[in-house]
């Protein structure tokens, strides 16, 4: 539970806010006093997240992060609704389409890169443009990578490549945007319980849980707490960093 309101009044945009880790991030940011724009292609999921937030001027908005027009519309709607750009942006929308390299289709590769990597690019670019245009005093962009982007994972050639790309994108954005006092960091979760990992066979989850030094799989709240720190001024001298939230897996 948040002990203080580090994000009082900060307007934050969370993509993928309609489920799992993104939903926990929306809750945590709102607990810290932020106003949250919950963006997801699953409008039912986003509305459910909205219902669970502490009181505030929050809104659920539809977006397909892989489509530049849709992302442009989202940022324009936020500007029109709140008369200011989001100063905290969390890119959490993501998908998996797992298959071994030898069997992976071009379609599955393209689809995962489109959401995870291109989606992060489009939202980061649109939010940064809005911040620079508004002369806002700064901002914090937090991108969801994965430890799998560092070490690879069986059956996830597309996903691992997309998440390695997210990390490189974030470091480059950090270098380019620092002059505007916009920070950009990546969180690298390990295995976190969510609808995404519900698709993973139990025996695989058990295998990974046994490998985690802290002895358990992660919960969405474990990631959300780190996200709130990176969103807040407590991390004001951190940019271009990748923070592993893995319970020690793969160290
Ligand atoms: P999830 O499936 O519960 O949530 C993903 C959300 O993204 C869903 O609400 C979905 O509707 C949304 N989404 C998918 N495509 C979209 C699009 N084109 N436009 C807008 N929204 C879209 O998964 P999760 O476990 O909460 O994962 C959240 C993020 O964390 C993802 O980027 C994922 O890759 C990353 N991650 C998860 C784990 C884990 O173990 N769960 C580990 C490492 C990284």
From TrEMBL:
The keyword Oxidoreductase applies. Pathway: Lipid metabolism; fatty acid biosynthesis. This is (3R)-3-hydroxyacyl-CoA dehydrogenase isoform X1. Transmembrane segments: none annotated. It comes from Pogona vitticeps (central bearded dragon). Residues 10-195 form the Ketoreductase domain. Belongs to the short-chain dehydrogenases/reductases (SDR) family. SMART domains: PKS_KR (SM00822). Keywords: Fatty acid biosynthesis, Fatty acid metabolism, Lipid biosynthesis, Lipid metabolism, Oxidoreductase. The keyword Cytoplasm does not apply. InterPro entries: KR_dom, NAD(P)-bd_dom_sf, Sc_DH/Rdtase_CS, SDR_fam.
């Amino acid at each position: 539970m948040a002990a203080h309101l580090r994000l009082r009044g900060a307007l934050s945009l969370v993509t993928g806010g309609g489920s799992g880790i993104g939903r926990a991030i929306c809750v945590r940011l709102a607990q810290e006093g932020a106003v949250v724009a919950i963006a997801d292609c699953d409008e039912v999921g986003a509305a459910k997240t909205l219902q669970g937030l502490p009181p505030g001027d929050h809104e659920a908005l539809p977006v397909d992060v892989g489509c530049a027009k849709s992302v442009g519309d989202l940022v324009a709607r936020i500007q029109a609704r709140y008369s200011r750009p989001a100063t905290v942006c969390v890119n959490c929308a993501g998908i998996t389409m797992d298959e071994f390299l030898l069997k992976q289709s071009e379609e599955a590769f393209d689809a995962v890169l489109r959401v995870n990597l291109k989606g992060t690019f489009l939202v980061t670019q649109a939010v940064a443009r809005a911040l620079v245009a508004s002369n806002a005093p700064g901002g914090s962009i937090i991108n969801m990578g994965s430890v799998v982007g560092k070490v690879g994972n069986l059956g996830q050639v597309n996903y691992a490549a997309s998440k390695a790309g997210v990390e490189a994108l974030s470091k480059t954005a950090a270098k380019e945007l620092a002059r505007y006092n916009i920070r950009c960091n990546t969180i690298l979760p390990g295995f976190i319980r969510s609808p995404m990992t519900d698709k993973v066979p139990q025996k695989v989850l058990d295998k990974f849980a046994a490998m985690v030094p802290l002895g358990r799989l992660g919960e969405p709240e474990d990631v959300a707490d780190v996200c709130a720190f990176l969103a807040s001024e407590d991390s004001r001298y951190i940019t271009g960093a990748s923070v592993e939230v893995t319970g020690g897996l793969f160290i």
